[in-house]
Amino acid sequence: MVAPANPENSQCIISYSELEERCSNLILSDDQIERVSATLLKEIENGLRQKTNGEADIKCYPTYVRNLPNGEERGKFLALDLGGTNFRVLLIHLGEATPEKEFASRIFAVPHQIMTGPGEALFDHIAECLALFVKEYKVDKEVIPLGFTFSFPCRQEGLTKARLVQWTKGFTCANVEGEDVVELLQRAIHKRGDVTIEVMAVLNDTTGTLMACAYKQPACRIGLIVGTGLNACYVEKLDNIERWDGDFDDPKQCIINTEWGAFGDNGCLDFVRTEYDKALDAATLNRGRQLYEKMVSGMYMGEIVRQVLVSLAKDGFILNGSPYDHLLEPGKFFTKYISEIEDNPEGDFTNCECILEELGFMDFTLEDCAKIRYVCQLVSRRAAFMAAAGVATLINKINEKHVVVAVDGSVYRFHPHFHNLMVQKISQLINPGLTFELMLSEDGSGRGAALVAAVAARLEREEAEENLLKNMLS
Hints:
Layout: H1 16-22, H2 30-48, H3 50-53, E1 61-62, E2 75-82, E3 86-94, E4 101-109, H4 112-115, H5 119-136, E5 143-150, E6 154-158, E7 161-164, H6 181-192, E8 196-203, H7 205-214, E9 220-226, E10 230-237, E11 253-257, H8 275-282, H9 291-296, H10 298-314, H11 335-343, H12 350-358, H13 366-398, E12 402-408, H14 410-414, H15 418-429, E13 435-440, H16 444-473
Parallel strand pairs: 2-5, 5-8, 9-12, 12-13
Antiparallel strand pairs: 1-11, 2-3, 3-4, 6-7, 9-10, 10-11
Helix pairs in contact: 2-13, 5-6, 7-16, 8-10, 10-11, 10-13, 11-12, 11-13, 13-15
């Protein structure tokens, strides 16, 4: 159990035991974590089954990405990463004598009038920027395969077919919802007639995270994002995907996009949700949805801490009855503050003092800092353990002797203890005889997308060579 520091020469109005008692519902027992893992497995299996998928919160979408990189990928590949008011284009070169090398990367803006205008104008704008990019780097005379990271809710129907379910993030482009975004992009490129770019795959950033890591680590089977959002994908056997509508040729596997941020939406996580989680959820636009994500991700972690601190201040546990108006504004306590406060060694409250001053507090004690740090530790530890329960569930389900887990996202990258906390809890939860490694995945939405395109191009090349050989022998 995390214990709060007890700085010398400070007067403790309320004892630490009382504080621990007050915050005890933020501390998950081993039994609770094991129950989270067992419940998640049941929910994933519901998502994989044809009969129960319709009612499942964790939808387990097949991505149609079945082959992982094998090191034989060669050539130049583009990645297009669209997920907000800017989009990025990346060019990488995979060659025999050199490791993966990024040639160029450029960010383009999506003006507001395009975000809210006709869908055709959006894809024409993207095609124009792609043409500018390939001409600038003098690859416009080549046929360049492209991987398309499209970070909006989609119903994927094939490796190169995904229909937009609903616009988010301020986009309202007409005549796109329900349409195949790959077809819209390819049509806009062909309409120009000045460049030849072939969209080889459409994917989300979680799949890209797995692929970017698998290029360097063949044992990679899981991709995890712990950042502003929370999601995971993993390699599943086709026999376990009842909704699979493709062929059953080798490899008999497919990457599954779990969309597990919705875990708990049916009430199955109520046994670990606190009054702070419920208050946070009640104030969100998507109330009652993405409840697992709201306990773990960077979008919400700072707000949970703020909810706890307001409750403690109201009852005199911190700030010794001083006004706490600075904490009453939702979103005021950023998730980055948690990482900064915990980055100081135990007993050092330099960052906490600076943050309290930034928030407008001038009359606080080291005792206050110690208690605030304690709350941050509880919330981040709970988040890490909840994420670890998810990863351990997938490792046990895959049941391979050694699995590499590709991880990305701001929480994982920047929280000073998140990695170690996850490793600690996963080690306790996985089945005997299994081993794992958490590996930071570099730029899944960029490099990962290009690698999905590279694998698809390699498979096409190998099939053409095999057919040629058959024709020569016949």
